[in-house]
Amino acid sequence: MATSASTAKATSNGRSKVNGETIEEQVGQLRDDIQALARTIGTMATGQVDRMQAKAGETKREAEVASEQALEAIRTHYKDAEATVSSQVREKPLQALGIAAGIGFLFALLAKR
């Protein structure tokens, strides 16, 4: 029976040849392919890390801006409240004194317990 060119044949040194390449050449090619794949995966991972770091930095900046805006809103609210209390105290000083005395009395009662 005749063998085809694609089947393995024994050479004079005892090694098999497959399609004109030795097993060693195929292993070498496989090793090169694996190294190329590893480099490609490394490059892709580096790209992902860079994108994630950029996104984290962007999110951090957005959070900083949002917190500054919230802090400014709180400051404005308390300045308005302070102005309202000040004007009420100026308009009705006896009522303000009575309210302050009542709050002080309540704190004294709570502190006694």
Task: Give a short overview.
This protein has 113 residues and is mostly helical.
Coarse shape: rod-shaped
Note the quaternary state here.
single chain
Roughly what fraction of the amino acids lie in strands?
Answer: 5-15%
CA radius of gyration is: 41 Å
Order of helices and strands: EEEHH
* Low-confidence blocks of residues: 1-8
Distance linking N and C termini: 110 Å
Tally of helical segments: 2
Widest sheet: strand ordering: 1-2-3
Q: In which range does the helix fraction lie?
A: over 70%
* Strand elements, count: 3
- Major sheet details: 3 strands, antiparallel
Mean pLDDT rating: 84
Structural class: mainly alpha
What would you note in describing this structure?
Strand 2 (16-18) and strand 3 form a beta hairpin. The relative contact order is 0.04. The protein has helices spanning 23-91, 93-112, and strands at residues 9-10, 16-18, 21-22. A three-stranded antiparallel beta sheet has the order 1-2-3. The longest helix has 69 residues, at 23-91. It has two helices and three strands, in the order E-E-E-H-H. The protein starts with 8 loop residues before the first strand and ends with a helix. With 113 residues, the chain is mostly helical. It has a domain at 24-97. Residues 1-8 have low confidence and may be disordered.
